[in-house]
Amino acid sequence: MVANISDIVKTVGFRDLNANLSCNIGIGADFWGRLTDVAPPKELHPFREVRGAVHTAVATPGDLLFHIRAERGDFCFEFERQLLDALGDAVTVADEVVGFRYFDARDLLGFVDGTANPTAGDMAAASIVGDEDPDHAGGSYVVVQKYLHDLASWNRLPVPSQEDVIGRTKVENIELPDVEHGQKAHKTLSTITDENGVEHDILRDNMPFGRPGHGEFGTYFIGYSRELWVIERMLERMFIGDPPGSHDRILDFSTATTGTTFFAPTRSFLEGLGD
After folding, report:
1. Secondary structure letter of residue 72 according to DSSP
2. Would 262 disulfide with which of 68, 118, 142, 238, CB 3.0-4.6 Å?
3. Coil, strand, or helix at residue 211?
4. What H or E segment, with its residue span, contains residue 261?
């Protein structure tokens, strides 16, 4: 079924090509060997819990990720319905999150999300595996986390204090200077440089989600990366702190309730699974 996913995309998507329906499939480390004899990607392993002094990035199991996207919500719905019908009893849904665009690319905390995303050619360089792992070139590591927000507490925080937590102005989305002393902002802790001072980007495709009637408000983090260690180091800086003990203050208002790692192969790799 995984090998034929493009058939469902065509079946649903032809009704309105402008809806841009797509589906990325991620395969978990523990499930990889059940799908193919090809050796797994070099960095693929189950999500590793990151336990800080105050907050924890929990690890939750997952074999397959279906990241469904479209300009129309009904296309996502119909694609998922047909997908689950085709999979039948072969799968059990562990988590289902329906995200949405919120105004001008903002999260439910009120800040623009994804400003630091690479663009143009830098996007592929940051998110797509290259010749360093030729059997999996063209694929991408994917980490997903569901964060639930305590909006009541967050909204009691004065806007200047919120801006200090995020590292950007709330209305204009202007980057604030890094602090020289004390606790670093979210935008600083989530910026990763290696031992040579080279900055490594990831591609974020985060989506807000929520059910106001149930008091549920959140952000579904979806990070694509050419190198898994980049996201792992980002989470270590956020949850453990830099220096240790100075965690990302956004975690005082946002709780990670899931954490799973996948690898999204190329379409040709997936189609080859049916041979």
Report:
1. S
2. 142
3. strand
4. strand 260-264
Distance CA 268, CA 205 (A): 23
CB 144 within 8 A of CB 48: no
pLDDT digits (tens, 9 = 90+) for 116-143: 999 998 999 999 999 999 999 999 999 9
**Burial (CB count <10 Å: 0-12, 13-18, 19+), residue 103:** exposed
pTM for the full predicted model: 0.96
Name the percent of the chain in helix, strand, coil, to the closest 5: 35, 20, 45
Cα maximum dimension of the chain: 58
Q: Hey, which residues does 67 pair with through a beta bridge?
A: 24
Q: Which residues are catalytic?
A: 113
pLDDT in tens, 165-208: 999 999 999 999 988 777 899 999 999 999 999 999 999 999 99
